Amino acid sequence: MNRNPYAPPAAALADVGDLSPASVHVDQLAREDFGGFWMRVLAYLIDGVILYFPQTFAAEWSIPLIVGDATLSPLQMVAWETAIAIVFDGAYFVAFWSSPWQASIGKRICGQVVTSENLTRLSVGRALGRYLASILSSLVIVGVLTIPFSSRRRALHDMMAKTLVVKRRAIERAIAESRGALPGSEPQ
User: Fold this and answer.
1) Nearest Cα residue to 77 out of 91, 49, 56, 93
2) Residue 23: how many CA atoms within 13 Å on its side-chain side?
3) Which helix or strand (DSSP H or E) is residue 80 part of?
4) Phi/psi at 55 (nearest 5 deg)?
5) Cα separation, 134 vs 119, whole angstroms
């Protein structure tokens, strides 16, 4: 095997998408293994930056197509931009949460995954339910303030959709422990 001596060491990471309820149980995870408030805020800000440009482009170019030469009132403009944001955000989050990544780009950068309560990948329906619940949760500001105070650091929308935000490394560690190997050790 011709290997570059300056290359970083390769580590076999567990595929979070291959989790089964039998391999890892949520009770194996400590409170610190769940996504904390500030990391979730950072992930959402990253996703917001990613979504800003396509949403702005869609809003700017779709309004003349829809209304022609007429002008929209400020309220109509806000309603249209909100509708576009809901569609773009919904498609983005549902697609990523239900993908093998189990995380939006922001959550992936922050090392978190979104799972069901039994640590399996979300279905498209469950991901859509979580997204719709997050809209309701954001309308009631208290929805996200439950994160620091709940035992599994769950927001109101996580409770409604029966989902968890877990640190990816914690799941990988739990998988390794359930297989009888320690993270970073060579397979026998």
Assistant:
1) 56
2) 18
3) helix 74-97
4) -65, -45
5) 19
Question: What would the two tokens of residue 162 be?
Answer: 């029966």
Residue with tokens 């990613």: 50
Q: What is the mean pLDDT of residues 23-39?
A: 82
pLDDT above 70: residue 94: yes
For the stretch 54-80, pLDDT in tens is 988 888 887 777 766 667 778 888 888
Number of domains in the chain: 1
23 occurs within a structural domain:
no
* Greatest Cα pair distance in the chain: 71
Give the pair of three-digit tokens for residue 89: 């955000």
**Residue 81, domain extent:** 29-66+73-178
Model pTM greater than 0.85?
no
Q: For residue 173, is it within any domain? A: yes
Residue 187 lies in a domain: no
